Amino acid sequence: MQEVCTQAAALSREIAFIIKWNPRSTPVQAIAAQRLLDTNTMWCHLREGKRMCLWMQALQLEGVGTEANPARRVLRLIERTIVDLGFCHKHGNPLLLPAYELEGWTTTLPQRFTMQDIIDLYKDHATHEQFHSEFKTDMDLERLPSGKFDTNFLVCALALWR
User: Fold this and answer.
1) Rounded CA gap, 103 and 21, in Å?
2) CA pair distance 100, 83, nearest whole angstrom
3) H/E/C letters for each residue in 34-83?
4) Contact present, 99 and 83 (Cβ < 8 Å)
5) Which tens digit of pLDDT belongs to each residue from 47-85?
6) Distance between CA 3 and CA 47 in Å, rounded?
């Protein structure tokens, strides 16, 4: 990633990205406790037994981001006190202890993009993946024949006429 950013800077171009963060070894319970104690945390109640909060962290990643658009991480914590099974109980099962889910997205998008914008933009990547999959399977183009864009463009154009 750093190499791509360096090449973009050499061309006087800016590259922004959104990458889903993996909280594998993150102490989710400790973070939840911090958010619960922080009086500035704004909780959004999505439904009975489910609420969430969003916040942002500045990141210091060498060679990533710019002074105008530094790298940052958007975090979302979801707290569930009722689990909706969908098939068993009309109102779900209350939990003895809350269950927490932590998600994060690392980005260098400009500050004009809100935290929710960043999450929504990342969700759209699934639509892109679906189109890519259909392109490969429905048009029978598992592998394009060339490393040249013009040749591959011609193959794709011919595949449309099949």
Assistant:
1) 7
2) 12
3) HHHHCCCCCEEEEECCEEEEEEEEECCCCCCECCCCECEEEEEEEEEEEE
4) yes
5) 889 999 999 998 887 777 677 778 899 999 999 998 876
6) 44
